[in-house]
């Protein structure tokens, strides 16, 4: 299996991409895994203010990242823009370490966070263009990068809670500051510059005029909405409705997270054989099997077994989905990658509201039924796409 052709040729620049995406992933995971606890304990924010913070952060993240992506695709100095995003991460972490004023965090912290969170999409876009310039398998390399980013979110949250509980939030954000600072230096000294002349053509593309982009954006947003609704409701469903051990929820998430990473790598391999469109159809189909299983399977062993479908659903969506956006918008790699990233953010916003409303009126089964419906709609959107149509790069 040709998983890492770049690394086998001792390409040190490729190692830089992998190192930076992993460390920035951990830095972000350290901060946001315990954010609600930080706001409640150190800032003394009530539930309303905490919800407001998350909502503003999500909306600002979508707007700022899309603006930065548009600017990046019209600017050949992508490396300098990534450096600026890393510096924003340094400033954000420092602000959270030393400041305890809620409104300063809401205004300046959210702004810096929105800029810093754009680091990853821009790195993915830069990596795609770099591997294409080197005549390498860009899709497989992007899949490996995405796997490392997911791994960062597997190991980051437990570390975050340990540091926050044992040493406090000041030390936690200080660690994040150091990690962002290290990434800034690595990007400055080691990351290759972008020399792709097609960045100057990005202004000619109106992404929303592309019917396939609209369909893929809708499908991806609905799929992420379903996934987030499940993550919000599942722990409560396991404990209060099924009356199973509350630790089971953690085990289920842990199994799914661990299987997602090999699922990403396998999807990257088979994408070469059957194409991104077919892989996305497989992802949606796995989602239908998973949410359908949640409606009918209620024992511990059954819930653990169907995590395989959950891992396939999320793993393929997380890796192939990004590459599909990049292919559809080949002249605007930063916009394409950020559009994909924003489907995750939009899904988080929608799921927070939708899961609460549905749970109140229809219970947890209603949440899973809604998720199943959203996945079916996603499958319909994907099936209507022209699988052979994309911008040539």
TrEMBL record:
It is found in: Cell membrane. Residues 13-389 form the Major facilitator superfamily (MFS) profile domain. Keywords: Cell membrane, Membrane, Sugar transport, Transmembrane, Transmembrane helix, Transport. InterPro entries: MFS, MFS_dom, MFS_trans_sf. It comes from the Bacteria. The chain crosses the membrane at residues 15-39, 45-69, 81-98, 104-127, 148-165, 171-192, 250-271, 278-297, 303-325, 337-358, 364-382. It is a multi-pass membrane protein. The keyword Ribonucleoprotein does not apply. Coiled coil: none annotated. Belongs to the major facilitator superfamily. Set transporter family. This is Major facilitator superfamily (MFS) profile domain-containing protein. The lineage of its organism: Bacteria, Pseudomonadati, Pseudomonadota, Gammaproteobacteria, Thiotrichales.
């Amino acid at each position: 299996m040709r998983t890492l052709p770049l690394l086998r040729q001792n390409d040190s620049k490729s190692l830089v991409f992998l190192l930076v995406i992993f460390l920035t992933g951990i830095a972000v995971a350290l901060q946001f895994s315990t954010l609600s606890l930080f706001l409640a304990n150190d800032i003394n924010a009530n539930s309303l203010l905490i919800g407001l913070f998350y909502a503003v952060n999500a909306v600002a993240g979508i707007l700022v990242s899309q603006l930065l992506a548009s600017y990046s695709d019209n600017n050949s100095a992508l490396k300098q823009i990534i450096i600026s995003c890393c510096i924003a991460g340094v400033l954000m972490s420092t602000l959270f370490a030393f400041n305890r004023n809620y409104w300063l965090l809401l205004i300046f912290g959210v702004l810096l966070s929105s800029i810093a969170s754009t680091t990853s999409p821009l790195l993915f876009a830069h990596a795609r263009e770099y591997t294409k310039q080197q005549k390498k398998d860009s899709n497989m390399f992007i899949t490996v990068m995405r796997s490392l980013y997911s791994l960062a979110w597997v190991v980051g949250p437990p570390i975050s809670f340990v540091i926050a509980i044992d040493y406090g939030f000041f030390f936690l954000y200080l660690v994040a500051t150091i990690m962002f600072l290290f990434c800034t230096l690595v990007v400055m000294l080691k990351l290759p510059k972008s020399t792709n002349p097609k960045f100057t053509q990005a202004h000619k593309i109106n992404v929303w005029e592309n019917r396939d982009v609209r369909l893929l954006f809708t499908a991806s947003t609905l799929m992420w909405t379903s996934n987030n609704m499940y993550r919000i409701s599942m722990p409560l469903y396991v404990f209060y409705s099924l009356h199973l051990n509350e630790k089971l929820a953690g085990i289920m998430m842990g199994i799914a997270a661990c299987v997602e990473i090999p699922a990403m790598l396998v999807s990257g391999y088979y994408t070469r054989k059957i194409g991104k469109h077919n892989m996305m159809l497989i992802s949606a189909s796995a989602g239908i099997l998973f949410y359908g299983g949640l409606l009918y399977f209620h024992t511990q062993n059954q819930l653990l077994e169907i995590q395989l479908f959950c891992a396939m659903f999320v793993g393929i969506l997380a890796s192939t989905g990004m590459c599909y956006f990049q292919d559809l918008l080949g002249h605007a790699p930063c916009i394409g990658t950020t559009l994909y990233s924003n489907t995750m953010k939009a899904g988080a916003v929608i799921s927070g509201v939708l899961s609460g409303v549905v749970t109140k009126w229809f219970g947890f089964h209603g949440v899973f039924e809604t998720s199943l419906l959203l996945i079916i709609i996603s499958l319909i959107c994907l099936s209507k796409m022209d699988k052979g149509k994309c911008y040539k790069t």
